[in-house]
Here is the input.
Amino acid sequence: MELRLYDTLTKEKRVFTPLDPNNVRMYVCGPTVYDFAHIGNARPVIVFDILFRLLRHLYGADHVTYVRNITDVDDKINDRAARDFPGLPLNEAIRKVTEQTANQFHADVAGLGSLPPTHEPRATDFVLPRTDGKADMITLIQQLIARGHAYEAGGEVLFDVQSMPDYGALSGRKLDEQLAGARVAVDAHKKNPADFVLWKQSSKDEPGWDSPWGRGRPGWHIECSAMSAAYLGNVFDIHGGGLDLIFPHHENEIAQSRCAHGTATMANYWMHNGFLEVEGAKMSKSLGNFVTISELLNDWPGEALRLNMLKTHYRSPIDWTLKGLEESKRVIDSWYDIVGDDTQASGIADDGVVSLLSDDLNTSGVITRLHAIASGRAGASGAALIDSQRTLKVSAMLLGLLGKTKREYLESNPKAVTVNKAVVDALIADRTAARARKDFKESDRIRDELAAMGVLIKDSKDGTTWEIAR
Ligand code: AMP
Ligand code: ZN
Here is the structure.
């Protein structure tokens, strides 16, 4: 099946041809670990998890390498460490902040059903030259200086944007426009105000590494140039992240990587997800209009959050609402009613689902298709019914949905854990006994008592079943 992906650099949807189908390579910029991630930060994680799953489906699970880094050197981290652990030496405090935050991030994204990437490098492991010969930041900066693309000034090493004729191609910004639009005073030590930092000096109470330019720390962009080259080579297939990373982060990654390696490209497809918004504004820490993944997972099944994210095409903005979430939860509940407790994940993914996903990740189309599969089983019976259940399950699993049994889902459902199953079962037994002796007043009273606990019961000729209402 032909895969087509939208490429931000060429501004078109193109047929995806991997450099090496035996090793399809994707890099996605990961979190800066200083604080809880909000649900907007989950969008790139989920979007590129869908692409990872699709690539594994198309090329084989062993033929895809997915790298998502952890940025554990950043001035925001230093500030947080000093604030939260004032009694500790800064380096220890920093380690505490980054470890706690990275662990929380892993728990959050696992709760949202995302697979771990193949490699998850930490920036601090790629600053100095390495014994395994993998790419590192200091060597990359030395290469840039040697090739005439970087210079030392004012205690910094800066990338010389004018040394690269097509600097700005990804974001479509022209250097002279940037100059004309610059409001801030030109930093005197820069040749060009658009020149960006590769390396900066650290004071003695800032984290730092010894380098040819004195004790210092890397700029943000050089990290991803080093870590992508370390695991994926100088040129690879797909580079992704949120829309806000196009400029300056990805623009500068391209400049560094291409100029250091002397290549015409860094990645063949540049993919960017749109923003998750609340009442028309991008969800962000600075606006304060955010809700953390971990708060949401306290109230909602991860699969409902994930489906809610996938209802919108990844390049469009998402309007995040409670109403949408409630609707997504109902859909997941109804699909679990259909797939039940069948643990056999064998079966074949629906062709329609795979081809919709292959059209630049048309997840909303896939969801419509899953609804059709779910309702198409009306009237089916026997083997055909089981087949359609499995098709629904296996196809939904391409989106990272319905991977559990219905029981596991109900048990992991946040509201469900507040209900004591033994108590529910005992009340249902009492109610069955009351009905048997035709004491309907008592049986209704027990039904209302269960309803007040959030438990819905259903009577059928095979007995009474129950589920958690939301
Ligand atoms: P940050 O922590 O701001 O560097 O963001 C980490 C990742 O989340 C980046 O890929 C951002 O583009 C992405 N991101 C941040 N806010 C949003 C949002 N509201 N909607 C979608 N993606 C976002
Ligand atoms: Zn990056």
Remarks:
- Residues 90-111 form the longest helix (22 residues).
- The mean pLDDT is 93.
- DSSP finds 16 helices and 15 strands in the chain.
